[in-house]
Structures are given as C-alpha cells and as structure tokens.
Amino acid sequence: MVRQEIQWAEESGCMIISIWHGCEIGDDCPEVLRERQAIQVTGESAREYETAVNTLLNSLGYSTY
Questions:
Q1: Are 19 and 56 within 8 A, CB to CB?
Q2: The domain containing residue 36 runs over which residues?
Q3: Overall number of domains in the chain
C-alpha cells in the first residue's frame, strides 16, 4: 500500500519528503525516495526529534530558529 501511495504522490506532482526512523535508506527503497530529500531520525532523544522536525519545516519553507 505504501508503494502505491508513493506512486500516486509522484504522479500527482506532490512534494515527497521521506522521514526515516530506526532504519537507513537502502537499495530496496523506491527510487523516488532516494532521489529526493530524506530526513533521518537516528536516535530516540528529544533533540534528535526536534532536529528532524525543524529540518522538515525548513524543507517546506517554514523558517525555524
């Protein structure tokens, strides 16, 4: 189902920003996700989540501190 949603989003011209938590982007990842911006949360701390959220907001054009 997720791969179908990715395909629909790509066909519709939507902005796709993948968020990865607890895993790395591998070769089995759809190409469209490897070609675009990806945000990785590598740990469980509040600071790492905050950094990921700020990265996401910045990529969407929202300025953070």
A1: yes
A2: 2-59
A3: 1
